[in-house]
């Protein structure tokens, strides 16, 4: 059986934060070599800011895992509230594909309204979401992608979604992020 081209993956999710929180939000990246959990990256992004792609790229590029990573996964297109990740920028900077995974199809009209009426820089963020394209249904989740085909995205989901529909790198990042914030993990990834 040929080796999977995306065997080394880093999955990112943000830590939970209170609705009233302003400032930095912790993000956690989990590193997987195949189905083996190999490490953790941790950093910060600004709540509702515009630095998620740059901070993720820097975290990955400056880590000991950079030479082995082949794919970045994100739990949604926005982290830390509405800090929208420019996945095409991330793809170009790191020279590796990016796969966004969501459990449910987002309510795009509600997102647009929130961005345009309540979020600083909301128009730019909305344009970024539109540029990324619509979410595609694949194997019980919804995805957006940069640098990989729909078939490759399906292979990645199929390989890494072991305990439910969410791929292990994202499920683990979610659990760790929740644990470091509240002392224990909770909820579904």
UniProtKB/TrEMBL annotation:
Stored InterPro entries: Endo_dU
A Pfam entry, by short name: Endo_dU
Domain of life: Bacteria
Name of protein: DUF99
């Amino acid at each position: 059986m040929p080796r999977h081209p995306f065997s080394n993956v880093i999955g990112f999710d943000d830590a939970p934060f209170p609705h009233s929180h302003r400032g930095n939000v912790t993000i956690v990246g989990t590193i997987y070599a195949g189905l083996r959990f190999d490490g953790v990256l941790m950093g910060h992004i600004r709540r509702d800011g515009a630095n998620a792609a740059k901070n993720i790229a820097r975290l990955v590029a400056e880590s000991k895992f950079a030479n082995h990573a082949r794919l970045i996964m994100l739990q949604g297109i926005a982290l830390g509230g509405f800090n929208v990740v420019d996945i095409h920028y991330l793809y170009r900077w790191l020279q590796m594909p990016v796969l966004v995974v969501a459990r449910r199809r987002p309510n795009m009209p509600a997102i647009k309204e929130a961005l345009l009426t309540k979020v600083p820089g909301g128009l730019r963020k909305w344009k970024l979401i539109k540029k990324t394209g619509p979410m595609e249904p694949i194997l019980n989740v919804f995805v957006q992608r940069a640098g990989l085909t729909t078939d490759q995205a399906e292979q990645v989901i199929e390989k890494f979604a072991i305990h439910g529909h969410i791929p292990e790198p994202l499920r683990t990042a979610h659990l760790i992020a929740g644990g470091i914030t509240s002392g224990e993990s909770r909820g579904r990834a």
